[in-house]
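Go through this one:
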Amino acid sequence: MKYYGGCDAGSTYTKCVILDENGKMAANVTNRSRINPVLSAQAALDEAVSQVKELSDAKELAYLIGTGYGRNKVPFADENVSEISCHAMGVHVAAPDVKAIIDIGGQDVKGIAVDTDGTVLNFAMNDKCAAGTGRFFENMANAFEMTLDEFSKLSLKTKNVIPITAQCAVFAESEVISLAGEGKPMEEIAAGIELSVAKRCFVMAKKAGAVDYVALTGGCAKNDGLKQAIEKVLKIKVVELPIDPQLMGALGAAEFARQKGSVL
């Protein structure tokens, strides 16, 4: 049995997926990224390899593709592919009917239109400001003295929304702290944060060609409050992927590795 790997070396988390020659997932890993992307990728690869009995080293993978922020730093990678292409392919593998993606990464937001074969039809990216990214949500959760999971559910507890007007991540955090200091309900502030990010996703969704439904990828796809806000703002359904949405980039990279490695 041959095995193929995909390593998504993101700015916040490093993910690794190993597929067998039939396309079945044999291993998956999600680790917090270190400051050194080489060490992050190596640790994720080692952990993924340890989940496959037939493998003892990442060098034994028939083909390995790196993707993400640190894709050029993935040890032993045969090549690297952009995270946009890998997220498209990952969603295509997980849910072939989905043709529109909003990927909310640690440092940027992307809208991706997917063709029938999993390739990219069109995309748009917002990488000019951290507002609306994974880092932004982490800062908001810290400001609320909560875990990300707790924060993601907070806005579900209210129907009222306190708008967050600042468009900059730094100013938005200051605005949130000021509102909390005034004694405003925390769940209403959280709802305002989720709504402001959803509005930022509007243009990305349109670029991705989303009409009836869209899939979210990246760690922020697990944010229940954000999913609800996106459905409200975009007036479309957010699809639940059958595989962890944070793994989509690594899954797509592994599938590209399987496709390319199998013809060698």
About this structure: The CA atoms of residues 96 and 116 lie 8 Å apart. The helical segments are 37-49, 83-94, 134-143, 148-154, 169-181, 186-207, 224-234, 248-261. The chain has two domains: 3-89+246-261, 97-240. Residues 186-207 form the longest helix (22 residues).
